Amino acid sequence: MVTITWHGHACVSITLSNGYTIVIDPHDGGSLGLKPPSVKGDLILVTHTHFDHNAVEVVRKDKSRVLMEFAGESRLDNVVVKGFVTYHDKAQGRRRGKNYVYVVQAEGVRVAHLGDIGHVPSGDVLTELTGVDLLILPVGGTFTIDAREAWETVEKAKPVNAMPIHYWVRGLNLPIAPVDDFLKLVKGYEVVKLPTNTFKLEDYKGKVVVPSPP
After folding, report:
1. What DSSP string runs through 19-71?
2. CB-based contacts of 95, cutoff 8 Å, min separation 6
3. pLDDT, tens digit, for every residue of 29-63?
4. Does residue 93 have a pLDDT over 60?
């Protein structure tokens, strides 16, 4: 049983049936006007080192393992992590640098987190994303792909489920768009707005899952 929890902005945790927890892109809360993540990670993944994605100390345990801006493949504690170089902009990183996409495989499911990707993925990255059980992707624009580019990504990758992140919510002090701009474009998937910020991945198929802000 794999549990997905949204901790606001781009921070997502994946908790396995044995309690092992992977945290991706932690923020510190206060710098963004949000609550800090209420989770500790056995494995922490950072897609890039901008302040709103790299607050490792907030979610670290004594023996946490950290992969920061990682490209390649690594097996850690029965979890396979694949990292792919992408860009934070449409200019091959010349404006905002590189961004690392992660595909996490554990307990028979694959979960992809696109970080702050600034362009629609293609080539080997898109091939790896195709058919994942959950595609977690930014939709708020300004610093990342916008709603239309995010939906184009979903249409190309054809994940089992998708989950929008990195969009404006009450309190957030970044100039990005709300999730509704993305949800208006959704076709072929049922949009499920949850009353909580957490869900069991096995309970969903063919959904765009929108957890509540924590």
Report:
1. S-EEEES---SGGGTSPPP---EEEEEES--STTT--HHHHEEEEEEEEES--
2. 88, 89
3. 999 999 999 999 999 999 999 888 999 999 999 99
4. no
DSSP classification of residue 202: G
Q: Which residues contact 114 (CB under 8 A, 6 or more apart)?
A: 47, 86, 99, 101, 121, 135, 136, 137, 138, 153
Residue 141's SS3 state is coil
pTM for this entry:
0.96
CATH of the domain at 154: 3.60.15.10
Residues 149-169: tens digit of each pLDDT: 999 999 999 999 999 999 999
Q: Which domain holds residue 38?
A: 3-210
Residue 80 has pLDDT above 90, yes or no: yes
* Burial tier of 169 (Cβ tally within 10 Å: 0-12, 13-18, 19+): middle
Q: How far is CA 120 from the centre of its chain?
A: 15
Burial class from Cβ neighbours inside 10 Å (0-12, 13-18, 19+) for residue 69 reads middle
Q: How far apart are CA 180 and CA 32, in angstroms?
A: 20
Q: How many domains, in total, are found in the chain?
A: 1
pLDDT (average), residues 59-74: 96
